[in-house]
User: Fold this.
Amino acid sequence: MFEELTDRFESIFKKLKGRGRLSEDNIAEAMRDVKRALLEADVNYKVVKTFTNGVKEKALGSDVLKSVTPGQQFVKIVHGELTSLMGGSSKAFHFHTNRVNTIVLAGLQGSGKTTACAKLALYFRKQGHRPLMVACDTHRPAAISQLEILGKSLNITVFSDRGKKPLDICSEALKRAKREGYSLVIIDTAGRLHIDQEMMKELRDICSLSKPDEIYFVADAMTGQDAVTVATEFYGQIHFSGVFLTKMDGDARGGAVLSILQVTGTPVHFVGIGEKPDAIELFHPERMASRILGMGDIVSLVEKAQEVVDAEKSRKLERKIRKNAFTLQDFLDQLRQIKKMGSLQDLISMIPGVGTQLKDVDVDSNALKKIEAIICSMTIAERNKPGLIEGSRKRRISLGSGTSVQDVNKLLKQFDSMKTMMKRMNKIAGKRGQMAAMRNLTPF
Assistant:
Protein backbone atom coordinates (compact mmCIF):
# COMPACT_ATOMS: atom_id res chain seq x y z
CA MET A 1 0.00 0.00 0.00
CA PHE A 2 2.78 2.47 0.85
CA GLU A 3 5.11 1.77 -2.09
CA GLU A 4 4.93 5.28 -3.57
CA LEU A 5 5.29 6.99 -0.18
CA THR A 6 8.23 4.73 0.69
CA ASP A 7 9.95 5.62 -2.58
CA ARG A 8 9.49 9.33 -1.90
CA PHE A 9 10.88 9.09 1.64
CA GLU A 10 13.89 7.07 0.41
CA SER A 11 14.64 9.75 -2.17
CA ILE A 12 14.42 12.52 0.46
CA PHE A 13 16.64 10.65 2.93
CA LYS A 14 19.21 9.79 0.27
CA LYS A 15 19.52 13.45 -0.63
CA LEU A 16 19.97 14.46 3.03
CA LYS A 17 22.47 11.71 3.84
CA GLY A 18 24.63 12.96 0.98
CA ARG A 19 25.08 16.31 2.74
CA GLY A 20 28.08 16.79 5.02
CA ARG A 21 25.93 18.62 7.56
CA LEU A 22 22.34 19.70 8.00
CA SER A 23 21.33 23.34 7.86
CA GLU A 24 18.05 25.20 8.19
CA ASP A 25 17.93 25.54 4.40
CA ASN A 26 18.30 21.85 3.51
CA ILE A 27 15.95 20.82 6.35
CA ALA A 28 13.35 23.28 5.02
CA GLU A 29 13.81 21.82 1.53
CA ALA A 30 13.41 18.27 2.89
CA MET A 31 10.26 19.25 4.77
CA ARG A 32 8.74 20.69 1.59
CA ASP A 33 9.38 17.33 -0.10
CA VAL A 34 7.93 15.43 2.88
CA LYS A 35 4.83 17.64 2.88
CA ARG A 36 4.30 17.08 -0.85
CA ALA A 37 4.78 13.31 -0.47
CA LEU A 38 2.22 13.07 2.35
CA LEU A 39 -0.37 15.16 0.52
CA GLU A 40 0.05 12.99 -2.58
CA ALA A 41 -0.48 9.95 -0.33
CA ASP A 42 -3.92 11.39 0.52
CA VAL A 43 -3.03 12.31 4.11
CA ASN A 44 -5.32 14.94 5.67
CA TYR A 45 -3.79 18.41 5.14
CA LYS A 46 -4.16 19.38 8.84
CA VAL A 47 -2.35 16.19 9.85
CA VAL A 48 0.41 16.95 7.32
CA LYS A 49 0.88 20.41 8.80
CA THR A 50 1.09 19.08 12.38
CA PHE A 51 3.48 16.32 11.35
CA THR A 52 5.87 18.49 9.34
CA ASN A 53 5.95 21.17 12.06
CA GLY A 54 6.84 18.51 14.64
CA VAL A 55 9.63 17.05 12.51
CA LYS A 56 11.02 20.49 11.61
CA GLU A 57 11.09 21.62 15.25
CA LYS A 58 13.06 18.55 16.35
CA ALA A 59 15.31 18.52 13.27
CA LEU A 60 16.42 22.12 13.87
CA GLY A 61 17.63 21.23 17.36
CA SER A 62 21.37 21.72 17.95
CA ASP A 63 21.88 18.00 18.73
CA VAL A 64 20.81 17.10 15.20
CA LEU A 65 22.61 19.90 13.37
CA LYS A 66 25.89 19.08 15.15
CA SER A 67 25.47 15.31 14.99
CA VAL A 68 28.17 13.15 13.38
CA THR A 69 25.42 11.48 11.33
CA PRO A 70 22.77 14.19 10.86
CA GLY A 71 21.09 12.30 8.00
CA GLN A 72 20.45 9.26 10.20
CA GLN A 73 19.27 11.52 13.01
CA PHE A 74 16.72 13.08 10.67
CA VAL A 75 15.44 9.61 9.68
CA LYS A 76 15.10 8.74 13.37
CA ILE A 77 13.06 11.90 13.99
CA VAL A 78 10.72 11.18 11.05
CA HIS A 79 10.29 7.58 12.27
CA GLY A 80 9.41 8.79 15.77
CA GLU A 81 6.90 11.35 14.50
CA LEU A 82 5.26 8.80 12.18
CA THR A 83 4.96 6.35 15.08
CA SER A 84 3.38 9.03 17.25
CA LEU A 85 1.06 10.06 14.41
CA MET A 86 -0.36 6.52 14.25
CA GLY A 87 -0.82 6.06 17.99
CA GLY A 88 2.60 5.32 19.46
CA SER A 89 1.95 1.71 20.46
CA SER A 90 -0.38 -1.19 19.64
CA LYS A 91 -3.73 -1.42 21.41
CA ALA A 92 -4.33 -5.03 22.42
CA PHE A 93 -7.82 -6.11 23.52
CA HIS A 94 -8.02 -6.51 27.32
CA PHE A 95 -10.05 -9.58 28.27
CA HIS A 96 -12.11 -9.79 31.46
CA THR A 97 -12.04 -13.33 32.83
CA ASN A 98 -15.11 -13.04 35.07
CA ARG A 99 -17.68 -12.18 32.38
CA VAL A 100 -18.53 -12.27 28.67
CA ASN A 101 -16.52 -9.74 26.63
CA THR A 102 -18.27 -7.90 23.81
CA ILE A 103 -17.16 -6.21 20.57
CA VAL A 104 -19.52 -4.27 18.28
CA LEU A 105 -18.54 -3.65 14.64
CA ALA A 106 -19.87 -0.54 12.89
CA GLY A 107 -19.37 0.98 9.45
CA LEU A 108 -20.85 1.55 6.03
CA GLN A 109 -22.07 -1.25 3.78
CA GLY A 110 -19.19 -2.73 1.77
CA SER A 111 -16.49 -1.74 4.24
CA GLY A 112 -15.87 -5.39 5.17
CA LYS A 113 -17.62 -5.67 8.56
CA THR A 114 -18.80 -9.26 8.11
CA THR A 115 -15.38 -10.50 7.02
CA ALA A 116 -13.77 -8.49 9.84
CA CYS A 117 -16.12 -10.24 12.29
CA ALA A 118 -14.85 -13.67 11.18
CA LYS A 119 -11.22 -12.52 11.20
CA LEU A 120 -11.49 -11.24 14.76
CA ALA A 121 -13.24 -14.42 15.90
CA LEU A 122 -10.47 -16.60 14.42
CA TYR A 123 -7.75 -14.28 15.77
CA PHE A 124 -9.06 -14.48 19.34
CA ARG A 125 -9.79 -18.21 19.14
CA LYS A 126 -6.11 -18.79 18.34
CA GLN A 127 -5.38 -17.01 21.63
CA GLY A 128 -7.48 -19.54 23.51
CA HIS A 129 -10.80 -17.70 23.71
CA ARG A 130 -14.25 -19.00 22.75
CA PRO A 131 -15.99 -16.53 20.40
CA LEU A 132 -19.63 -16.27 19.35
CA MET A 133 -20.42 -14.27 16.20
CA VAL A 134 -23.79 -12.50 16.11
CA ALA A 135 -25.54 -11.62 12.83
CA CYS A 136 -27.45 -8.38 13.53
CA ASP A 137 -27.47 -7.11 9.94
CA THR A 138 -31.07 -8.02 9.10
CA HIS A 139 -31.34 -5.29 6.46
CA ARG A 140 -29.09 -7.25 4.11
CA PRO A 141 -30.08 -10.95 4.18
CA ALA A 142 -26.90 -11.91 2.34
CA ALA A 143 -24.88 -10.63 5.32
CA ILE A 144 -26.43 -13.26 7.59
CA SER A 145 -25.75 -16.03 5.07
CA GLN A 146 -22.20 -14.78 4.56
CA LEU A 147 -21.47 -14.86 8.30
CA GLU A 148 -23.03 -18.32 8.64
CA ILE A 149 -20.88 -19.65 5.79
CA LEU A 150 -17.75 -18.13 7.34
CA GLY A 151 -18.65 -19.54 10.74
CA LYS A 152 -19.17 -23.02 9.32
CA SER A 153 -15.85 -22.96 7.45
CA LEU A 154 -13.99 -21.88 10.61
CA ASN A 155 -16.03 -24.05 12.99
CA ILE A 156 -17.07 -20.95 14.96
CA THR A 157 -20.65 -20.61 16.20
CA VAL A 158 -22.89 -17.95 14.62
CA PHE A 159 -26.05 -16.76 16.36
CA SER A 160 -28.71 -15.63 13.87
CA ASP A 161 -32.49 -15.37 13.62
CA ARG A 162 -33.97 -13.99 10.41
CA GLY A 163 -37.40 -13.61 12.01
CA LYS A 164 -36.34 -11.17 14.74
CA LYS A 165 -35.23 -7.57 14.99
CA PRO A 166 -31.55 -6.71 15.61
CA LEU A 167 -32.09 -5.71 19.27
CA ASP A 168 -33.88 -8.99 20.05
CA ILE A 169 -31.14 -10.98 18.27
CA CYS A 170 -28.48 -9.15 20.27
CA SER A 171 -30.30 -9.75 23.57
CA GLU A 172 -30.78 -13.48 22.91
CA ALA A 173 -27.15 -13.87 21.78
CA LEU A 174 -25.80 -12.29 24.97
CA LYS A 175 -27.99 -14.58 27.09
CA ARG A 176 -26.77 -17.64 25.19
CA ALA A 177 -23.13 -16.57 25.50
CA LYS A 178 -23.48 -16.25 29.26
CA ARG A 179 -25.41 -19.51 29.55
CA GLU A 180 -23.03 -21.59 27.40
CA GLY A 181 -19.72 -20.13 28.57
CA TYR A 182 -18.58 -18.10 25.55
CA SER A 183 -15.81 -15.68 26.48
CA LEU A 184 -16.34 -13.26 23.58
CA VAL A 185 -19.33 -11.98 21.59
CA ILE A 186 -18.66 -10.16 18.30
CA ILE A 187 -21.69 -8.33 16.90
CA ASP A 188 -21.92 -7.62 13.17
CA THR A 189 -24.25 -4.64 12.71
CA ALA A 190 -26.05 -3.27 9.67
CA GLY A 191 -24.48 -0.77 7.28
CA ARG A 192 -25.86 1.48 4.56
CA LEU A 193 -24.41 2.99 1.41
CA HIS A 194 -24.47 6.29 3.31
CA ILE A 195 -25.03 7.42 6.90
CA ASP A 196 -28.69 7.79 7.91
CA GLN A 197 -30.45 8.40 11.23
CA GLU A 198 -32.28 5.05 11.24
CA MET A 199 -29.01 3.15 11.04
CA MET A 200 -27.39 5.29 13.73
CA LYS A 201 -30.32 4.88 16.12
CA GLU A 202 -30.24 1.11 15.68
CA LEU A 203 -26.48 1.12 16.26
CA ARG A 204 -26.78 3.26 19.41
CA ASP A 205 -29.51 0.96 20.76
CA ILE A 206 -27.33 -2.14 20.20
CA CYS A 207 -24.39 -0.48 21.95
CA SER A 208 -26.63 0.60 24.82
CA LEU A 209 -27.98 -2.94 25.23
CA SER A 210 -24.70 -4.86 24.83
CA LYS A 211 -22.45 -2.40 26.73
CA PRO A 212 -19.45 -3.41 24.56
CA ASP A 213 -15.87 -3.43 25.77
CA GLU A 214 -14.84 -2.17 22.34
CA ILE A 215 -16.68 -0.55 19.43
CA TYR A 216 -14.63 -0.94 16.26
CA PHE A 217 -15.31 1.30 13.29
CA VAL A 218 -14.59 -0.82 10.20
CA ALA A 219 -13.22 1.29 7.35
CA ASP A 220 -12.05 0.41 3.85
CA ALA A 221 -8.47 1.71 3.52
CA MET A 222 -8.96 1.90 -0.26
CA THR A 223 -11.37 4.84 0.14
CA GLY A 224 -8.59 7.13 1.43
CA GLN A 225 -9.80 10.44 2.87
CA ASP A 226 -13.45 9.37 2.48
CA ALA A 227 -12.79 6.78 5.20
CA VAL A 228 -11.60 9.56 7.52
CA THR A 229 -14.65 11.71 6.72
CA VAL A 230 -17.08 8.85 7.41
CA ALA A 231 -15.16 7.90 10.58
CA THR A 232 -15.57 11.45 11.88
CA GLU A 233 -19.34 11.32 11.35
CA PHE A 234 -19.62 7.91 13.01
CA TYR A 235 -17.53 9.06 15.96
CA GLY A 236 -19.91 11.98 16.53
CA GLN A 237 -22.75 9.46 16.91
CA ILE A 238 -21.32 6.46 18.79
CA HIS A 239 -17.80 7.41 20.03
CA PHE A 240 -16.17 4.19 18.82
CA SER A 241 -13.01 3.12 20.68
CA GLY A 242 -10.89 1.82 17.81
CA VAL A 243 -10.61 1.32 14.07
CA PHE A 244 -10.35 -1.87 12.00
CA LEU A 245 -8.88 -0.96 8.60
CA THR A 246 -9.67 -3.47 5.85
CA LYS A 247 -7.98 -4.03 2.46
CA MET A 248 -4.56 -2.87 3.65
CA ASP A 249 -3.07 -5.17 1.02
CA GLY A 250 -4.57 -3.05 -1.75
CA ASP A 251 -2.93 -0.37 -3.87
CA ALA A 252 -4.39 2.67 -2.10
CA ARG A 253 -2.03 5.47 -1.11
CA GLY A 254 -2.41 4.89 2.64
CA GLY A 255 -3.56 8.35 3.73
CA ALA A 256 -6.34 6.95 5.92
CA VAL A 257 -3.86 5.07 8.12
CA LEU A 258 -1.83 8.21 8.76
CA SER A 259 -4.83 10.50 9.28
CA ILE A 260 -7.50 8.61 11.16
CA LEU A 261 -6.08 8.87 14.71
CA GLN A 262 -5.34 12.59 14.50
CA VAL A 263 -8.73 13.42 12.97
CA THR A 264 -10.98 11.20 15.13
CA GLY A 265 -8.84 10.81 18.26
CA THR A 266 -9.14 7.01 18.12
CA PRO A 267 -6.32 4.65 17.07
CA VAL A 268 -6.24 1.82 14.57
CA HIS A 269 -6.41 -1.49 16.48
CA PHE A 270 -6.47 -4.07 13.68
CA VAL A 271 -5.77 -4.22 9.95
CA GLY A 272 -6.98 -6.68 7.34
CA ILE A 273 -4.15 -7.71 5.01
CA GLY A 274 -5.91 -10.12 2.65
CA GLU A 275 -9.13 -11.94 1.88
CA LYS A 276 -8.49 -15.09 3.94
CA PRO A 277 -9.88 -15.28 7.51
CA ASP A 278 -6.38 -15.42 9.00
CA ALA A 279 -5.23 -12.30 7.09
CA ILE A 280 -5.41 -10.00 10.11
CA GLU A 281 -2.76 -8.19 12.14
CA LEU A 282 -2.73 -6.24 15.37
CA PHE A 283 -1.72 -2.73 14.30
CA HIS A 284 1.76 -1.75 15.49
CA PRO A 285 2.48 1.95 14.75
CA GLU A 286 6.24 1.59 15.21
CA ARG A 287 6.44 -1.37 12.82
CA MET A 288 4.21 0.37 10.29
CA ALA A 289 6.44 3.46 10.44
CA SER A 290 9.45 1.22 9.73
CA ARG A 291 7.69 -0.30 6.70
CA ILE A 292 6.72 3.13 5.35
CA LEU A 293 10.32 4.33 5.64
CA GLY A 294 11.66 1.20 3.91
CA MET A 295 13.29 -0.16 7.08
CA GLY A 296 11.52 -3.52 6.98
CA ASP A 297 9.66 -5.23 9.81
CA ILE A 298 11.63 -8.22 11.06
CA VAL A 299 9.52 -8.63 14.23
CA SER A 300 6.31 -9.17 12.25
CA LEU A 301 8.16 -11.54 9.91
CA VAL A 302 9.31 -13.67 12.86
CA GLU A 303 5.78 -13.65 14.32
CA LYS A 304 4.35 -14.86 11.00
CA ALA A 305 6.92 -17.68 10.93
CA GLN A 306 6.10 -18.70 14.52
CA GLU A 307 2.40 -18.96 13.64
CA VAL A 308 2.95 -21.51 10.85
CA VAL A 309 6.11 -23.38 11.91
CA ASP A 310 5.70 -26.57 13.94
CA ALA A 311 8.58 -26.70 16.45
CA GLU A 312 8.75 -30.52 16.52
CA LYS A 313 8.74 -30.75 12.72
CA SER A 314 11.49 -28.13 12.61
CA ARG A 315 13.68 -30.22 14.95
CA LYS A 316 13.10 -33.33 12.81
CA LEU A 317 13.94 -31.36 9.67
CA GLU A 318 17.16 -30.08 11.26
CA ARG A 319 18.22 -33.66 12.06
CA LYS A 320 17.46 -34.70 8.46
CA ILE A 321 19.54 -31.83 7.06
CA ARG A 322 22.46 -32.77 9.34
CA LYS A 323 22.28 -36.34 8.05
CA ASN A 324 21.89 -35.12 4.45
CA ALA A 325 18.53 -36.94 4.30
CA PHE A 326 16.47 -33.94 3.11
CA THR A 327 13.87 -35.10 0.56
CA LEU A 328 11.55 -33.51 -1.98
CA GLN A 329 8.68 -34.22 0.43
CA ASP A 330 10.46 -32.14 3.09
CA PHE A 331 10.98 -29.42 0.48
CA LEU A 332 7.25 -29.47 -0.35
CA ASP A 333 6.33 -29.19 3.35
CA GLN A 334 8.60 -26.15 3.74
CA LEU A 335 7.16 -24.57 0.59
CA ARG A 336 3.62 -24.90 1.95
CA GLN A 337 4.63 -23.33 5.25
CA ILE A 338 6.07 -20.32 3.42
CA LYS A 339 2.84 -19.96 1.43
CA LYS A 340 0.86 -19.80 4.69
CA MET A 341 2.90 -16.76 5.75
CA GLY A 342 1.61 -14.65 2.84
CA SER A 343 2.89 -13.45 -0.52
CA LEU A 344 6.64 -13.59 -1.15
CA GLN A 345 6.66 -9.91 -2.11
CA ASP A 346 5.21 -8.97 1.30
CA LEU A 347 7.65 -11.23 3.15
CA ILE A 348 10.64 -9.78 1.26
CA SER A 349 9.49 -6.24 2.07
CA MET A 350 9.70 -7.06 5.80
CA ILE A 351 13.42 -7.92 5.65
CA PRO A 352 15.43 -4.82 6.63
CA GLY A 353 17.62 -3.61 3.77
CA VAL A 354 16.45 -6.34 1.39
CA GLY A 355 12.92 -5.17 0.63
CA THR A 356 14.10 -1.84 -0.82
CA GLN A 357 16.79 -3.51 -2.92
CA LEU A 358 14.35 -6.01 -4.43
CA LYS A 359 11.29 -3.77 -4.69
CA ASP A 360 11.42 -3.79 -8.50
CA VAL A 361 12.04 -7.54 -8.76
CA ASP A 362 8.96 -9.40 -9.97
CA VAL A 363 8.45 -12.32 -7.58
CA ASP A 364 6.61 -14.98 -9.58
CA SER A 365 4.23 -16.75 -7.19
CA ASN A 366 3.21 -19.05 -10.07
CA ALA A 367 6.70 -20.55 -9.99
CA LEU A 368 5.99 -21.89 -6.49
CA LYS A 369 2.69 -23.34 -7.69
CA LYS A 370 4.52 -25.05 -10.55
CA ILE A 371 7.06 -26.60 -8.14
CA GLU A 372 4.26 -27.79 -5.87
CA ALA A 373 2.38 -29.33 -8.81
CA ILE A 374 5.50 -31.19 -10.01
CA ILE A 375 6.30 -32.67 -6.58
CA CYS A 376 2.63 -33.59 -6.01
CA SER A 377 2.69 -35.55 -9.30
CA MET A 378 5.50 -37.76 -7.99
CA THR A 379 5.04 -40.98 -6.04
CA ILE A 380 6.19 -41.16 -2.40
CA ALA A 381 9.16 -43.29 -3.49
CA GLU A 382 10.16 -40.68 -6.10
CA ARG A 383 9.94 -37.84 -3.57
CA ASN A 384 12.16 -39.73 -1.13
CA LYS A 385 14.61 -40.93 -3.82
CA PRO A 386 14.74 -38.48 -6.75
CA GLY A 387 17.42 -40.67 -8.34
CA LEU A 388 14.62 -43.06 -9.39
CA ILE A 389 13.19 -40.44 -11.76
CA GLU A 390 14.34 -41.29 -15.29
CA GLY A 391 12.94 -40.47 -18.77
CA SER A 392 9.51 -42.18 -18.69
CA ARG A 393 8.86 -41.06 -15.10
CA LYS A 394 9.73 -37.49 -16.02
CA ARG A 395 7.22 -37.57 -18.87
CA ARG A 396 4.53 -38.95 -16.54
CA ILE A 397 5.26 -36.27 -13.90
CA SER A 398 5.21 -33.46 -16.47
CA LEU A 399 1.86 -34.64 -17.86
CA GLY A 400 0.40 -34.99 -14.35
CA SER A 401 1.52 -31.50 -13.31
CA GLY A 402 0.73 -29.69 -16.57
CA THR A 403 4.38 -28.73 -17.03
CA SER A 404 7.18 -29.69 -19.39
CA VAL A 405 9.95 -32.28 -18.98
CA GLN A 406 12.37 -29.33 -18.95
CA ASP A 407 10.55 -27.93 -15.88
CA VAL A 408 10.92 -31.29 -14.11
CA ASN A 409 14.62 -31.45 -15.03
CA LYS A 410 15.13 -27.89 -13.75
CA LEU A 411 13.53 -28.68 -10.38
CA LEU A 412 15.56 -31.88 -9.94
CA LYS A 413 18.77 -30.05 -10.81
CA GLN A 414 18.01 -27.21 -8.37
CA PHE A 415 17.16 -29.71 -5.62
CA ASP A 416 20.40 -31.60 -6.24
CA SER A 417 22.38 -28.33 -6.03
CA MET A 418 20.61 -27.43 -2.79
CA LYS A 419 21.50 -30.80 -1.23
CA THR A 420 25.15 -30.36 -2.27
CA MET A 421 25.20 -26.93 -0.64
CA MET A 422 23.64 -28.34 2.58
CA LYS A 423 26.28 -31.08 2.64
CA ARG A 424 29.08 -28.49 2.40
CA MET A 425 27.52 -26.37 5.15
CA ASN A 426 27.28 -29.43 7.42
CA LYS A 427 30.99 -30.16 6.86
CA ILE A 428 31.94 -26.56 7.68
CA ALA A 429 29.75 -26.60 10.81
CA GLY A 430 31.27 -29.95 11.83
CA LYS A 431 34.86 -28.68 11.45
CA ARG A 432 34.04 -25.56 13.49
CA GLY A 433 32.54 -27.75 16.21
CA GLN A 434 35.65 -29.93 16.30
CA MET A 435 37.91 -26.88 16.51
CA ALA A 436 35.85 -25.43 19.35
CA ALA A 437 36.05 -28.75 21.20
CA MET A 438 39.83 -28.83 20.74
CA ARG A 439 40.12 -25.30 22.15
CA ASN A 440 38.09 -26.33 25.20
CA LEU A 441 40.44 -29.29 25.79
CA THR A 442 43.60 -27.14 25.51
CA PRO A 443 45.01 -26.53 29.06
CA PHE A 444 46.43 -23.06 28.22
Notes: The chain has three domains: 3-85, 101-283, 309-438. The first strand starts at residue 101 and ends at 106. Strands lie at 101-106, 131-135, 158-159, 184-188, 214-220, 242-246, 268-272, 280-282.
